[in-house]
Design a protein that fits this description.
Elements: H1 6-18, H2 24-31, H3 34-39, E1 42-47, E2 50-57, E3 60-67, E4 71-73, E5 83-89, E6 94-101, E7 111-116, E8 119-126, E9 129-131, H4 135-147, E10 150-156, E11 162-168, H5 172-183
Antiparallel strand pairs: 1-2, 2-3, 3-5, 4-11, 5-6, 6-9, 7-8, 7-10, 8-9, 10-11
């Protein structure tokens, strides 16, 4: 599988982080700035299959990590490179946005299941990507990834074929520390204001707020 360059990862990270939450016009406006953001991206470091980056848009810093699976099974599905990401946007009081980019158009109303150890998380889908439904689930998934050894992501394509991606989590916690430091995110919760557990993202066409602090 091909490897993404830094600029492509930046653009993809920003798209994945904002696309489900914004009305179509706003999402298009954000995507139009990707070239500018990618040009200003800085690589913070890498560990294992994971790398950390920081970039800037009109809101301020965007910190994210990205990793690729060590093995994939995708018989009968044509796809681009899959990727897992965690994104922080501190100026908007957004942190720990988990996303899995599957690299193909996912079956409408399907879920991507992510298994870490004996835990399974079901992410809602839109286009070629998947997200958690709440910020609380995001934090739970990030904690599981940081403690785990492997993550297995299973998705379903429009043609009904399933894919399986196996991610080694070796190095994940190290690059998580890098983006936490770059964007001032504390695992103890003493930097970013607490987020309300009931906050939801846009899901199945319903406009909902995304990861906003009630004190923001």
């Amino acid at each position: 599988m091909k490897r993404f360059g830094v600029g492509a990862i930046v653009a993809l990270a920003v798209t994945v982080a904002v696309a489900p939450a914004l009305p179509a016009a706003a999402a298009r406006q954000r995507r139009a700035t990707h070239g500018e953001i990618a040009a200003a991206a800085e690589t913070l470091g890498s560990a294992g299959a994971w790398s950390a980056y920081v970039a800037h848009d009109h809101t301020g810093r965007v910190c994210y990590l990205a990793g690729q699976p060590q093995r994939s099974v995708a018989a009968g599905v044509r796809r681009d490179q899959p990727m897992a990401m965690v994104t922080h946007r501190p100026a908007e009081h957004i942190a720990d946005v988990v996303s899995f980019v599957e690299g193909y158009e996912l079956k409408p109303a399907s879920v991507v299941t992510v298994a870490v150890g004996d835990r399974k998380f079901h992410l809602f889908t839109k286009g070629d990507s998947a997200w958690d439904k709440t910020s609380e689930l995001d934090r739970t998934v990030v904690a599981a990834l940081a403690r785990g050894t492997t993550a297995v992501a299973t998705g379903e394509a429009e043609n009904g074929r399933r894919t399986t991606d196996i991610y080694s989590l070796d190095g994940f916690s190290k690059v998580l520390d890098l983006i936490d430091k770059a964007c001032g995110v504390s695992r103890a919760g003493d930097v970013l204001p607490p987020r309300h557990p009931a906050v939801r993202r846009r899901h199945h066409g319903h406009a909902q707020k995304r990861h906003k602090s009630p004190t923001a």
